[in-house]
Amino acid sequence: MLDVLTTSLNIMQVRITRSRLAGEPADVLIQPRLSGIAAMDFHRGAVAMAEGERAAEQAMPLVRELLG
Q1: Residue 51: other Cβ atoms inside 10 A
Q2: Contact 32, 54 (CB under 8 A)
Q3: Furthest C-alpha separation in the chain
Q4: Measured at the alpha carbon of residue 33, what is the angle toward residues 8 and 60, in degrees to the nearest 5?
Q5: Which CA distances in Å does 57 have to 43, 61, 63?
Q6: Contact call for residues 34 and 44 (beta carbons, < 8 A)
Q7: How confident is the model at residue 10, as a pLDDT?
Q8: How far apart are CA 27 and CA 66, in angstroms?
Q9: How many other C-beta atoms lie within 10 A of the C-beta of residue 31?
Q10: Alpha carbons 49 and 22: distance in angstroms, whole number
Q11: Using one digit for the tens of pLDDT, what is the confidence trace for 8-56?
Q12: Element (H or E) spanning 64, and its range?
């Protein structure tokens, strides 16, 4: 039951995010690859943070370019 609730919340979050980005596109969108990490995988926080850092580092050239 908790898994179904978590999945439905994830779907809702994705749809809201897509809707907002369609109306106000971001200059830079950083999307870490977290498909293998579930909402309740708190024990995998280090993995999630490392992926976020990797994605941010990858986006930095574009951020620097946009900042001039």
Answers
A1: 16
A2: yes
A3: 49
A4: 130
A5: 24, 8, 10
A6: no
A7: 86
A8: 8
A9: 9
A10: 27
A11: 998 999 899 999 999 999 999 999 999 889 888 999 999 999 999 999 9
A12: helix 45-67
